């Protein structure tokens, strides 16, 4: 008796090996798979702007990277002794304005240089909800601007809404010239939106991605969301918060990713590299 409903993933013409540079952008699920790719010996640039969750914020960051377009001081906000970027994760925040701006723009240049080598790009959408700037204290050039991170600023500074399927498709049509792109939808549930709100969000993302992969022959979809929701629909595959996948669940998704996009020879090298990475973490006992 089969006690699961395995997700059938069709063979993909997109193949990945260790000669393939990989750019990953999106939700924290990108960090999970990106970390495993790095340990498996791949050349990876993972979330150069930090973790990004909604499709519009990811598109804004990607536009800046492709054009090598720096941000200016309007993109920064001072709060609690630190400068923060509306386009970047809080790991770029800094007490010094110029240092914060320089670090943020360096991330743009790094992503631009990486993209010039035509890597495969892996995009993970996490949520269809976004925040836009509004009100007093927001520069005129930034009014209505979708932000990647609210940095715990007052709610009055933002308008929150759910992006539509059409908005996502219209925004991402501009990237059809991008080299092979693999879309995923994060299986991590955003329960702050409520169970129903989370389902509406994920459904919007899935519908949008389904349309996007029909726009460009080099665009693909990987079923990470379906693997966790259907094949691994048991709380033993979740972390203690019951929303994030456990390490075992990510390992299973990682193996399905390898089966879909890598040859047996490449998978063998992955195991060798992972073993070497584990051994490097061991510290010898000094007598």
Describe the structure.
The chain is of the alpha/beta class and 287 residues long. It is 39% helix and 15% strand. The chain has eight helices and ten strands. The chain has helices at 28-39, 55-67, 97-115, 165-172, 194-212, 224-231, 247-261, 264-281; strands at residues 22-26, 44-46, 76-79, 82-85, 120-125, 129-133, 146-147, 158-162, 181-185, 219-221. The strands form three sheets. The chain has a five-stranded parallel sheet, with helices on both faces. α5 links the parallel β9 (181-185) and β10. α2 packs across α3 and α4 (165-172) packs parallel to α5. The mean pLDDT is 93.
Mind sketching the topology for me?
Blueprint: E1 22-26, H1 28-39, E2 44-46, H2 55-67, E3 76-79, E4 82-85, H3 97-115, E5 120-125, E6 129-133, E7 146-147, E8 158-162, H4 165-172, E9 181-185, H5 194-212, E10 219-221, H6 224-231, H7 247-261, H8 264-281
Helix pairs in contact: 2-3, 4-5
Contiguous runs where pLDDT drops below 50 for at least 5 residues = none
Please state the overall shape, judged from the principal axes of the Cα atoms: globular
- The neighbouring-strand order within the major sheet is 2-1-5-9-10
Residue share in helix: 25-40%
Q: For the record, give the distance between the C-alpha atoms at the N and C termini, rounded to a whole number.
A: 54 Å
Radius of gyration of CA atoms, rounded to a whole number: 20 Å
Given helix and strand content, the structural type is alpha/beta
Report the sheet-strand fraction: 5-15%
Looking at how many chains there are and whether they match, the oligomeric state comes to single chain
Mean pLDDT: 93
One letter per element, helices H and strands E, the order comes to: EHEHEEHEEEEHEHEHHH
Q: Strand tally, please? A: 10
Tally the helices: 8
Tell me about the largest β-sheet.
5 strands, parallel
């Amino acid at each position: 008796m089969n006690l699961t409903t395995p997700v059938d993933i069709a063979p993909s013409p997109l193949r990945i090996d260790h000669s393939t540079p990989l750019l990953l952008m999106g939700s924290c699920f990108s960090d999970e798979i990106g970390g495993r790719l790095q340990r498996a010996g791949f050349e990876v640039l993972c979330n150069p702007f930090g973790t990004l969750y909604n499709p519009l914020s990811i598109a804004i960051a990607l536009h800046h990277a492709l054009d090598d377009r720096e941000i200016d001081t309007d993109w920064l906000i001072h709060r609690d002794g630190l400068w923060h970027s509306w386009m970047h994760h809080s790991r770029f925040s800094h007490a010094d304005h110029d240092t914060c701006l320089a670090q943020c723009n360096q991330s743009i240049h790094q992503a631009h240089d990486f993209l010039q080598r035509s890597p495969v790009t892996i995009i993970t959408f996490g949520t269809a909800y976004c925040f836009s700037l509004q009100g007093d204290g927001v520069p005129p050039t930034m009014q209505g601007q979708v932000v990647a991170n609210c940095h715990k600023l007052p709610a009055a500074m933002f308008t929150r809404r759910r992006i539509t399927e059409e908005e996502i498709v219209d925004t991402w049509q501009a990237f059809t010239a991008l080299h092979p792109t693999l879309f995923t939808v994060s299986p991590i549930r955003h329960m702050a939106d409520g169970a129903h709100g989370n389902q509406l969000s994920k459904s919007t993302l899935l519908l949008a991605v389904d349309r996007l992969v029909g726009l460009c022959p080099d665009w693909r979809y990987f079923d990470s969301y379906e693997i966790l929701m259907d094949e691994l629909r048991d709380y033993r595959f979740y972390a203690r918060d019951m929303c994030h996948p456990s390490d075992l669940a990510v390992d299973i998704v990682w193996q399905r990713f390898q089966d879909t996009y890598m040859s047996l020879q490449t998978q063998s090298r992955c195991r060798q590299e992972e073993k070497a990475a584990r051994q490097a973490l061991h510290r010898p006992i000094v007598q």
